[in-house]
């Protein structure tokens, strides 16, 4: 598997995935990869003249970088190579226009790459139905730190967007309330850096404490009364 691009998503995968012996990485600028290689000896830098050696490619580029890369290097790959496409801003059909003669598989990340690195937990990639063979390939490569589930590109886009929008509103509201109470910034930062993530994890695991349970029950009651 060749990783193309070395932004937050690729850095997270190479950091969290402990099952791969060698990560083959190409990035337009080598500095990031060279720096990462100092901490992770499993990273191996690849140059364009080696692209033809890889049939499976993990595309970790933003939309604009992805298009530029294909225009410059698309012809360097073997025909019918398999490209796992992760950019949420481009659909499979849009990417295929730049990769004639190759297979494009949508593989979208449902989560936050930096948070995954902090937790050392890869979280979830989503692949559409109908790609069972390709799913097995990417599951094997991603390893035990990740899960791969079935879903659509649109579902991941909506889930990520809503989660970011509502979280930003939450942070703004909490900050405003704490400012009104004249809580020092150091205490605000300590609370915000732990409590929201902790409450969410507890909610997903059904492990709320008494205070959180009381708030949830009150909110659910108010919601029922409104209807």
Automatic annotation (TrEMBL):
Q: What InterPro entries would the database entry show?
A: NAD(P)-bd_dom_sf
Reading the lineage from the top rank, the first entry is Bacteria
The record's SUPFAM superfamilies line, in alphabetical order, gives:
NAD(P)-binding Rossmann-fold domains
Protein name stated in the entry:
Pyrroline-5-carboxylate reductase catalytic N-terminal domain-containing protein
High-level lineage: Bacteria, Bacillati, Bacillota, Bacilli, Bacillales
